[in-house]
Each structure stands twice: as C-alpha cells, then as structure tokens.
Amino acid sequence: MEPEDSINVTGGPLAICGTDPVTGFFRDGQCNTCAADQGSHTVCAVMTAEFLAYSKYVGNDLSTPRPEYGFAGLKPGDPWCLCAGRFMQAADEGCAPQVHLAATHRRALDIVPLEVLRAHATKTD
Questions:
Q1: Which of 23, 26, 39, 56 has its CA 20 to 30 A from that of 108?
Q2: What tens digit of pLDDT does each residue of 37-64 get?
Q3: Which Gene3D superfamilies match (predicted)?
C-alpha cells in the first residue's frame, strides 16, 4: 500500500492532523490515503462531545476505549482523520465537527465539497 501524494484541500503540503492519539489510515499522524482506504479517512476533524455522541448513535463509536486494539477512545478536542462520508453525514445533520483544512487530504473532495469543509474550518485555517 503506497500512500497518494500528501496534498491538502487547498493544494499545499498535508499537515499533521494528530499524534496523541496517533491518527490516520497509516497511523502516521496524517490523513494520508491510498486505494485500500475504502473509508476515505481524509478529513482532519476536531472531536466535539456532540459529534462523538452522534457518531456513537449512528454506529461508529469513537469514544469508547478498545484496549484490545490499543485504542483509548477519543474525547472532545482530539484531532482525528475522519471518514469523509461520516463527516458529510454529520454536516447534513448539523453536527459536523470543525476541520483543519491544512491537514485534510485533497481526496476528501471526492466526497465533501470544499465549501462544506470551509464552512467548518477551524479559526487557524
């Protein structure tokens, strides 16, 4: 599995999304992707309590620790490479978290329009 070029949604170099916890399809801290990444883990999102509750409700529990996988569970404020489809679903429902545009891979644009990502951009982007 070779990652695609590390380019963000604005055409610049892909920034680190998060290393505590380590995120990314390749667990490299970046929202890098490849053909094997069927979930398109390309949106660097900052978790909120509202989004974590929503995600759990729709069947993707990101907050419960899973020690058998070395996963401590996410808490509000944690950055995470989120599936683009899950982000879009949350945006449609009005509970999408903020995103770091510089750390969101350009492949997210296959699923999420840039104007939707910009509407949820962090103040630092």
A1: 56
A2: 999 999 999 999 999 999 999 988 999 9
A3: Protein of unknown function DUF2237
